[in-house]
Design brief:
282 residues; globular
Length: 282
């Protein structure tokens, strides 16, 4: 977690160094998980393919690309490595923004990381065990009878990644709602007043993130709405940031960024003072 002294300004170089360290640590964590999963890439893909294989009994997926049977399982292992490293990635993100938070807000980092991780994994499990069987069961029964439903392994993987990640992010709605209210961007009253727009937005988001069918659109819109209501319920338990708090007046507020060089500012002030002195003499 970036360290900062109370009231001390952090230069842009310090922020860039922290960003570099955050990215390097994140890449290292993903690499470690990928190396551990690499020997089991084929077994992982076989497990991920179970929902669609169950929907087309007696048939298997096909590989159109020449190297798809080799690269596709590796890609699945890499994506799974990112998912497994998600708790660490979320912690590094929260740690990076910690200097901009007040002391009481920093105490929320660990609870938010834990809740964000649980919600993300819940969204992925919900998509894998509930949404995929419904979608693939529906898709396998539609279309002309002369067409065999045998998806390509690469297209199937892209579909699974897109939908599972969409559900993982969609399940973060309570966290997003709480943060928007906590940082004063909006209020529970405003959100309740505009609930009708949020309902429409949830279905539009479901349409954009899922295949063009009403079933998957509804399966993602309903959880979003329920989780939004959960965020509204828990938001009052969090302290809302004020424009000017006691902590800020006492110098214990968030660290600010000093985007200019102090020596350069001192020189400019000296030049300006000299120019003013010359103007007075004239």
């Amino acid at each position: 977690m970036p360290e900062s002294v109370k009231g001390e300004k952090m230069s842009i170089i310090q922020h860039l160094v922290e960003l570099r360290n955050t990215l390097l640590h994140s890449v290292l964590a993903i690499t470690i998980f990928f190396v551990a999963l690499f020997p089991f890439a084929d077994q992982i893909y076989t497990f991920i393919a179970e929902p669609i294989v169950a929907a087309i009994p007696g048939s298997n997926l096909i590989a159109i690309g020449v190297i798809s049977p080799f690269l596709t399982p590796l890609k699945m292992a890499l994506i799974l490595a990112v998912y497994l490293a998600m708790p660490f990635l979320l912690f590094k993100i929260w740690a990076f923004v910690a200097p901009a938070l007040y002391k009481h807000e920093k105490r929320l980092i660990l609870p938010l990381v834990i809740s964000s991780t649980i919600l993300f994994y819940t969204g992925i499990l919900f998509s894998f065990y509930i949404v995929f069987p419904v979608i693939f069961g529906f898709l396998s029964t539609v279309g002309p009878s002369v067409v065999n439903f045998t998806p390509d392994i690469q297209y199937y993987l892209d579909f699974v990644i897109k939908v599972s990640f969409a559900f993982g992010v969609a399940f973060e709605v309570p966290i997003a709602t709480i943060l928007l209210i906590m940082f004063g961007v909006t209020t529970p009253e405003k959100l309740k007043k505009n609930r009708a727009y949020i309902v429409v937005g949830a279905f539009v988001l479901g349409m954009l993130l899922t295949p063009p069918d009403i079933i998957s659109q509804t399966l993602i819109a309903i959880p979003i709405l329920l989780l939004f209501e959960a965020g509204l319920f828990f938001a009052p338990f969090f302290k809302v940031r004020k424009a000017k708090s006691e902590n800020d007046r006492e110098g214990s507020g968030p660290a600010t960024v000093d985007w200019s060089d102090e020596s350069h500012n001192a020189k400019m002030d000296k030049i300006e003072a000299e120019m003013n002195e010359r103007g007075k003499n004239k």
